[in-house]
Structure formats: C-alpha cells, structure tokens
Amino acid sequence: MNTPSVILTSILTCAFCLDGALQAAQHQVPPSPTATHQGARRYVQVEYPPSTAANELQLGVAYNLWIPGGAPRLRCVIVHQHGAGAQASKGGETAAYDLHWQALAKKWDCALLGPFYHVLGEKTDTSPGASELWMDPRLGSDKSFLKALEEMSVQSGHPELNTVPRVLWGHSGGAIWSNVMTMLHPESVVAVFLRSASAASFRFDWHVKRPGFRQPEVPAAVYTVPSCATPA
C-alpha cells in the first residue's frame, strides 16, 4: 500500500515532469494568430461498443475530454490513463473532471483526456473482459484512441487535436499502455510518466512470465522523449 509520503512524492514528481514537458511543447507548437474559439470550458465525449473484428478493441470504451476556456489553439493533449482492474477503470470515468489536472492543463492551453475502459467484473487481469484486452495498444486500444481524437477534434471545434503533441500519464496497467504507445508513436509524444509499471515489468510480472505479451520494438526516437517512472 502506498504511504502518504510516497503518494506525495509521486504527485510532486509528476507535476514537475509534466510542467517541464509542457513548457517544451509550448515552444514546439506556437499559437495560431488566426484561430479563434468562442466557447467556454467544454466537455466532449465519444463512446465505442466492443468490437468483434480482429485487431480491434474487444471492450467498450468512453473518452472524456476537457477543453479549457479562452484557449484559441490547443498546444497539447494530456492523457490521464487509469490502471488495471474494475475499480481503477471506474475511477478513470472522472479523470477529465479532476480540478487539479484541469489547472495543469489550463496553464499550458492543453486539453485533458480521460479514457474509461468498460472492464467486465474481472477477478484477475487475465479473465474474460479483463484489462489485458486494452493494456496492450496493439490489441485495438491504439486504433480506438486515434479514432476518438479525430472525432473529438471535429466535435470540439479544435482540429489541432489530431496533430498537437501528447503527454501520456499512466498508472499500473495505464503505465504499460503509455509505455507501449510511446514506442508506437514516439513522434507524437512530448513526455511520458509511468507510475508503478512498464512494458518490461509486465512481461515478467512478479516472476510470472507472460508469453502472450509481445515485448514491443524500441525505435531510436523513443530515447528523445522525456520520460519519468516511479516503481511504487
């Protein structure tokens, strides 16, 4: 169990890492002098049912997006990815509504995205309908994530959502997802924060080898992405 000091250290480290990364992103993506956004703070949601097609997400998922008011052009998308398990999944439903994360996003003219995977009453992470169906983006959650960004860019009136950098924060199973997503799309990730897990740790989780999880290839571009990880 995390002690208060460990939790506080994780929060402060996370804030420092994201703040520095978003400051770098600010210089990479200059504001557009012609872009305008008349709406106040807005929430946008897209939801997809489970798919039965090969290489598509077998779980239902909802994506909640918060957009700060007054930002003529978004500079980045902060992704707050919940961890494995039914309770963690339920907690992810409110991630985009967190006032502290919204304050960080607003400071840098960023959108805040909280995915919420509909995990089905799992007892273990390998049971039917469990988190392993989304933790590996190659099993379909990558496709649904990109599709959601495309749809929300239209609904929100911010077409740049499709192209601005992303900051990925993930806990446990969400850290595995964030780690693999960074390897798949290093050109799109401006920073990644892994709390309590990684792709390597999942491969040999508590000395249990998982042959079904293919260790992803690590492109050279990954080493240019600012990364931070905590073991607990």
Helix and strand arrangement:
Layout: H1 4-28, E1 42-48, E2 61-67, E3 76-81, H2 86-91, H3 99-107, E4 110-117, H4 132-135, H5 141-155, E5 166-171, H6 173-184, E6 189-195, H7 199-203, E7 204-205, E8 208-209, E9 227-230
Parallel strand pairs: 3-4, 3-5, 5-6, 6-9
Antiparallel strand pairs: 1-2, 2-4, 7-8
Describe this protein's structure.
With 232 residues, this protein is an alpha/beta fold. The chain has a single domain (63-230), classed as Rossmann fold (3-Layer(aba) Sandwich), CATH 3.40.50. The chain is 33% helix and 21% strand. It is built from 7 helices and 9 strands; from the N terminus they run αβββααβααβαβαβββ. The chain has helices at 4-28, 86-91, 99-107, 132-135, 141-155, 173-184, 199-203; strands spanning 42-48, 61-67, 76-81, 110-117, 166-171, 189-195, 204-205, 208-209, 227-230. The strands form 2 sheets. Strands 1-2-4-3-5-6-9 form a 7-stranded mixed beta sheet, with helices on both faces. A hairpin with a 2-residue loop joins β7 and β8 (208-209). The longest helix has 25 residues, at 4-28. The protein is globular and about 45 Å long. It starts with a helix and ends with a strand.
Q: What is the succession of H and E elements?
A: HEEEHHEHHEHEHEEE
Q: Give the domain tally.
A: 1
Number of helices: 7
What is the number of E strands? 9
Q: pLDDT average, as an integer?
A: 82
Structural class: alpha/beta
CATH topology: Rossmann fold
Strands of the biggest beta sheet: in what spatial order? 1-2-4-3-5-6-9
Biggest β-sheet description: 7 strands, mixed
Q: In CATH, what is the class?
A: Alpha Beta
- Oligomerization state of this entry? single chain
**Beta-strand residue fraction:** 15-25%
Q: Can you name the CATH architecture? A: 3-Layer(aba) Sandwich
Q: Report the span from N to C terminus.
A: 9 Å
**Overall geometry:** globular
Using only CA atoms, what is the Rg?
Answer: 17 Å
> Which consecutive residue ranges, at least 5 long each, have pLDDT under 50?
1-12, 29-40
Helix content: 25-40%
